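The records we work with from here on pair a chain with its fold. These numbers are not coordinates but entries in a learned vocabulary of local backbone shapes. To see the layout at work, look at the sequence and tokens printed below.
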Amino acid sequence: MDDSRRTAPIRLVVAISSRALFDLDESHRIFKAEGVDAYHAYQVARENEVLAPGVAFALVQKLLALNERIGEAGRVEVILLSRNSSDTGLRVFNSIRHHGLDITRAAFTGGASPYRYVSAFDAHLFLSADPDDVRQALAAGCAAATLMPAPAQTACADGSPVRIAFDGDAVLFSDEAERVYRSEGLAAFNAREVAAASVPLSAGPFKPFLLALHRLQALFPPQDAPLRTALITARGAPSHERVIRTLRDWGIRIDEALFLGGLPKGPFLEAFDADIYFDDQEGHCADARGRVATGHVPHGIANAG
């Protein structure tokens, strides 16, 4: 067969920091309280002690397990981006090996922000415990979120789908509508959205990530996909139509859409059984993080100033 006619594999690349993948709270406390040298000594002395799972560990397990279902048609890859040096990062790689995670690529930046390697690795998503790194990645055009502190969970071994949930405005979509709501109120927001129902919303920072997920989903029948997505938004009727038409214009299938009309999102995230949820508003994230792994997206008018 002519190689030039082969279909290129579908790729999903997720970059993650070591503090999002593993529980490094005690190590980070020593770094903050005692400095770099004490941190270095602490990590080297314990490089054969396995790190416990962190907030995003279960998500990473489930993402990597997708490769068994995808086969040669595509590939999910997780990249480690860490402020550790390669010396102190040895403990992280030892823990990756112990836990059986198929992670082979990494960048150890020795204290510098690793965000600039997000685009070099062609990552679709960057997850970190450092808000500054996340903001820089977003400014560089990559979907990125700060993982909110929460108890780590272990991935289920029942083969259940990876479930990823998104807020709408300022996450999947731009914050143009949110700006109207904040400056003019709900009535003006609804009136504008009804008038512009046939005009697609501009893309938010997570559209490329959602598109990459959609391409993976398209490898499977809808009823048998190992990956499910949900839009969980405070919008309700009549502002729902513009959202639906925007996703249709983008050619993106989203499995579940919940228009909550201002109801708290936490119970619905539990009902969806989300592996991770992304939202731009810290209040929504605070409600969600005790229920599911939650990524704060510091983007848009809600995070201005």
Notes: The longest strand covers residues 74-82. The two ends are 57 Å apart (CA to CA).
